[in-house]
Model the fold of this input.
Amino acid sequence: MTAPEHHGPIISVRAFVERDGKFLVIKRSDGNVAAGKWCLPGGVVTYDHTPDQSITSLVKEKTGLAANNLDFLYYQDSPPMEEGTLHSLNMYFVAEGRGDVVLSPVATDFAWISPEEAAAYDLALRGADAIPKYVENKRPKLEQLVNLMNEAGSANIPVTYDILQGIQALPGFFTQLGKDVQVFERVRAKVHARMEDIQLSHLRNGEHILTQIESRTKEPRSIMEKMIKKGKNRIPRHYTTFDDLSGVRGVVSYISDAYMVLDFLLKHYQVREIEDFMETPKHGGYRGIHVTLEVPMPEVDFLPRCEVQIRTTAQHAWATKTRELTYKQGSVSDTDLYMFNQLSDLMHEADLYADQLLKQMTDR
Done:
């Protein structure tokens, strides 16, 4: 779309892109305005784009970084200094920088600096004039972070600076999270006890059909990391919509036993979702049944959920081995993935043979 000709001020956008308590500056290359000088990343607002869209796009284009959690800081009027020069309105933003810095040809170098270090870089394009506003804006945020850290400590929730920055929490968030985690723990205990009832009441030849029960409640840090990953870090208590904050796993000897456990759960709980990966495994070879239960609790203002995983001993062995092999690995190769699937298929074939033997010997 072509912009109509006009002679008013141009609108430019600049960003304090933050990481680890510092912000990014780039050194402008030859052939650009203020060549050889340092500045905040940004540029001119593109016709038919909002300032928010423009600064997000310009930061990505010039630095390779994603500008997350964008906030408007202030605008700065920069009238023409002399006849023939431009009149611009500069809009400043603050954002969290995600990713690796990859400079475009408009820049030759970059640095992460603190406001105290900015004077040594002599920021061009009136960037230096924006530093006091940036510092003034940071003061209440730092005070709020300290208060939130104290609140988290009172709720026995360990936090880091990165979590505090990423979660965008309001006062009261950690106190409420601490209370809700206790609810998730009660849900876990309740469903675990129900699975123990199944274990005690269902025997075959004197042996438990449900051979193993494990359970866990997701830690507060993991809950917050999941909120950030899903982009729900600005929605208070969005974690109450997650399915897996309480989790129980049951291990059985036979595939048919897995469906027996499933039937028992269906009779005692409202089921939100069933994912059956027995016949058709997930990508990578995982097999099992996942059931999301709705577990009402007294005096709780939301409907808690619990994810129950049901596996055979063979499927559990597969999951344990693959986790051992891939734990803390960044990725697996296509060859590894193929072999995981092959191993899953072999163990599933063994499960099918075992079920056939069970039926054959039971029918005698």
Observations:
- The chain has a mean pLDDT of 90.
- The radius of gyration is 28 Å.
- The CA atoms of residues 175 and 240 lie 15 Å apart.
